[in-house]
Design a protein that fits this description.
The chain is an alpha+beta fold. The chain contains eight helices and 13 strands. The strands form three sheets. Strands 2, 3, 4, 5, 7, 9, 10, 11 and 12 form a nine-stranded mixed sheet that branches. Strands 1-13 form a two-stranded antiparallel ribbon. Helix 1 (8-31) packs antiparallel against helix 7. The N and C termini lie close together (8 Å).
Length: 313
């Protein structure tokens, strides 16, 4: 089965939607340098949820829907994917193709401000962990310097970890590729003050932002590190990806480029030929499925002729 070639305005609209979401979370990382990955995931998904449905000049409808499942830590197991990207293509409402790409997200840690990891007790306590703080705390109005550089690490990703092994096992068993979406600030190096005096001074351009690398690339970097080590921004790159137009291309596809130009053009992700595929059903429809959130983009073509031209999958 081959994936249909989608109209250019559909690809462009999807790229714009994910670029806006990338922009939001990248600047948020500078505004809240200690934010948990789950918070960044939530803001990425919520920004995409604002898009809703639109009819494009080609007459094609693009609908972006999201579903937030919550952390798999509720079930005492490692999550395989934080965000599942699902593309469903229809012709006048009739389903003709579906494909999936799974994103495991990790964020870059600043040098000076630590990120407190959440554990099972945080989920069990719930909002109590936010409102039941009675111990004396450091004055909140005292600003702290923070910075991001090549030496900053992805603190929740470590060589030889159980999660890395489980992701490898999952791909081998299910045949669904897993990619890493790395949350970075808009610029590297970057410096800031937290909290800022009059609010966050927004940077002009999101030069780095959220980048996507293949599982094989990430795990290849981890294989070269001592067990338990966390990779740095400088480590997490592939020199074969370097280009003249993107100075940070070695650090992966931009999130919007990955979705629009790789997944929607069927160069990356997994295509499902059978509407009743058991692998797809176990991923998306079972409550114990190892994902946290889903972003479903439905493309509804107005004429069957638009689906006659097919690209390789």
């Amino acid at each position: 089965m081959k994936f249909p070639t989608l109209p250019k305005d559909v690809i462009d609209a999807a790229r714009a939607a994910f670029a806006d979401a990338n922009d939001r979370v990248s600047h948020l990382l500078m505004r809240q340098p200690a934010m948990h990955e789950e918070g960044l995931d939530f803001h990425l998904v919520s920004k995409l949820d604002e898009v809703g449905a639109q009819v494009l000049p080609s007459g094609t409808a693009l609908v972006i829907e999201t579903h937030w499942l919550g952390g798999r830590r509720h079930y005492g197991r490692w999550e395989i994917s934080d965000i599942a990207i699902v593309i469903a293509v229809r012709v006048q409402g009739g389903l003709i193709a579906r494909k999936v790409a799974l994103l495991q997200t990790k964020r870059l840690y600043s040098k000076e401000i630590p990120v407190d990891h959440t554990d099972r007790s945080d989920y069990e306590i719930g909002i109590g962990r936010l409102v039941d703080r009675t111990d004396k705390a450091k004055p909140l109005f005292i600003q702290r310097n923070f910075s991001f550089s090549d030496k900053c690490v992805y603190g929740a990703l470590s060589a030889g970890s159980e999660q890395v092994q489980r992701i490898d096992d999952y791909v081998d068993e299910r045949g669904i590729p897993v990619y890493y979406a790395l949350y970075n600030p808009p610029k590297v190096p970057a410096n800031g003050l937290h909290p800022p005096i009059t609010g966050y001074a927004r940077l002009d351009e999101n030069e780095v932002g959220c980048r996507v690398l293949k599982r094989e690339e990430i795990h290849g970097v981890l294989d070269d590190l001592p067990a338990g080590s966390t990779p740095s921004f400088g480590d997490m790159q592939n020199s074969k990806r370097k280009t003249t137009f993107d100075p940070f291309a070695a650090h992966g596809w931009r999130l919007e480029t990955f979705v629009a130009d790789e997944v929607m053009r069927c160069r990356e992700g997994r295509l499902f030929e059978d509407a009743q595929d058991d692998v797809l059903a176990s991923l998306l429809y079972r409550r114990s499925a190892p994902i946290t959130a889903a972003v479903v983009m439905t493309v509804d073509l107005p004429k069957s002729e638009l689906a006659y031209e097919y690209g390789e999958s």
